[in-house]
TrEMBL record:
Subcellular location: Membrane
B box-type domain boundaries: 7-44
Protein's name according to its UniProt entry: Rhomboid family intramembrane serine protease
Keywords, alphabetical: Hydrolase, Membrane, Protease, Transmembrane, Transmembrane helix
Organism: Curtobacterium citri
One Pfam family linked to the record: Rhomboid
Amino acid sequence: MTDQGSDRANYCYRHPDRQSFILCQRCGRTICTECQTPAAVGVHCPECVREQRAQFQSNRRASGAPSSLTVARRRFAMVDQKATVVIIAVSVVIWLVNLLSGGLVNQWLAYWTPLVGTQPWRLVTGLFVHSSFLHIAFNMLAVFIFGRMLENLLGTWRFLALYFLAGLGGDLAVSLLTPGTPVVGASGAIFGLFAAFFVIQRSLGNNAVQLLVIMGLNLLLGFLPGANISWQAHVGGIVLGFVTGFVFSKTRNIRQRRLQVGLLVAEAVVLVAGIGAAYLTVGGYVIG
């Protein structure tokens, strides 16, 4: 009787304890089902697969073809609303990481007035963290709809200025009205987008009353008992959205570019100074 245990050709070369009769189509070595990769004809072993990929990349470079990273960069460059896409992508990634961390990410990134002086990143990161699936789903849907329209109207950098200024407006309102309450979400910035879009549409002669009604109805939801919604951030975002939208509508001329930038910087300085003053006011707040 033949001792198959002594015939190593009948066993996977990577797993000597697994008997197999599957051969790599390229090198002829025995491989088990875990080690095989389907090919155009038959299957290949892991080493042959790595060699083929390396050869493919070498031929690709020799032929002058762009790398995968270059292709990805070119595709991203073709996207018209880059800032909107990045905001949504970052928010979704942070939400997923927060789930995996058991909520630790939200604790480190949420906006909270008593900590903003020593952890200033919370001024911005609070816009990217969310409490639940529905929270991030509705917020990102609003960013997707209004973000794309406003980014097309204003351009990427003006849109980003509007988004973060409205977010800071929401932070300031929270710091002044409810300084002891941690806040998460992009709602303040989103309400700023609503308000700015209304102002810009009106400046272009378009009827935007329906948007004003929608914004008002959404604002009222924050006052419902048990809603657990920061209406303060919404109000702050709306105020800054109106102000920033007004600035954009009155400085459209290219000759007013410096004035526009100066006014936006002034808004940011006032907002940060206001938040700083609120932080100093609650400096003795005991963090539990």
